[in-house]
Amino acid sequence: MKLSQRQEQIAHIVREEGPVTGDAIAKYLDVTRSALRSDLSVLTMLGVLDARPNVGYYYVGLSTETQVSETLNSFTVQDVLSQAVVVTPETSLYDTIVTLFTEDVGTILVCEDSYLLGVVSRKDLLRASMGQNNSNTMPISMIMTPVSKVIFVEPADTLVEAAQKMIDYEVDCLPVVIIEAEAKKKRYKVVGRVSKTTVTKTYLECSIQ
């Protein structure tokens, strides 16, 4: 949960002046005591402040969990995206499988001139390779999920939003795209990818700081 500007001001006042009463905080901010009631409740609930009867508010600080949550919410997709692994629609099923293993990824984007046409996952490749298909001649465009059904994120989306999409749609990776409108038709320029591994690494980095 992100603190509002006034909640941050209250936390700063209590950190510098505490212990301090609610009336004194209201005077610092030039507002009524009742106007601060909800903000003080939120800060106390989060563990940022502690209140003692007849004494006032003490500054405790954000818990580790809250600090990690705050940090994660501050990241946008463009802060953490990685290079997309891409093949063209004419790439064979066999060569796509080789690319999957050599690049050690779970999802490959199918693009033409950097514009997204579709995606293929490990499951897609496994199903296709187990069928009666010639993997050396079948183009990957025959089995890819078309762009109209692809779940994606944009660079300005938060990492938390990206993680939620991956959970909601049960996918391991999302293309990061810039949407361009051309002749009333949308095109999706690929600028990278974000994966569950990305989210996990970012979470760990925030936790050990």
From TrEMBL:
Taxonomic superkingdom: Bacteria
PROSITE patterns according to UniProt: CBS
A Pfam entry, by short name: CBS
InterPro entries for the chain: CBS_dom, CBS_dom_sf, Diverse_CBS-Domain, HTH_11, UCP026546_HTH-CBS, WH-like_DNA-bd_sf, WH_DNA-bd_sf
Residue ranges annotated for the CBS domain, each copy included: 80-135, 144-209
Key word Lipoprotein present: no
SMART domains assigned to the protein according to its UniProt record, in alphabetical order: CBS (SM00116)
Entry annotated with the keyword Ribonucleoprotein: no
Keyword annotations: CBS domain
UniProt-listed PANTHER family: CBS DOMAIN-CONTAINING PROTEIN (PTHR43080:SF2), CBS DOMAIN-CONTAINING PROTEIN CBSX3, MITOCHONDRIAL (PTHR43080)
Protein's UniProt name: Helix-turn-helix transcriptional regulator
Organism: Veillonella absiana
